[in-house]
Each structure stands twice: as C-alpha cells, then as structure tokens.
Amino acid sequence: MLWTIALILFVLWMVGLLVHLGGALIHLLLVAAVIFFAVHLVNSQRRVT
Fold this sequence. Notes:
By secondary structure, this protein is mostly helical. The chain has one domain (2-48). It contains two helices and no strands.
C-alpha cells in the first residue's frame, strides 16, 4: 500500500511539473512521497535483522 501511495504522489508531481499546476502543493506531495519511501526502507530493514 505504501508503494501505491508513493507512486500516486510521484505521478501527481510529474503531472504538476508538466502542466505547472499547484506549484507548492505538488512539491509538498513529492516530499511526502520521499518521506513515505524512506520510512518504508527503514521499517523493512528492521524486520530483516
């Protein structure tokens, strides 16, 4: 589910860059996607070890 959210946010960010809509909001969505991705990586590494 986390990957789906991150993918959706990334696609929205790319669309925003292409059509220049909601500049600040699009960048906030990108930051949220990166944070979700980082949290997922940290959590998945903790489960392995």
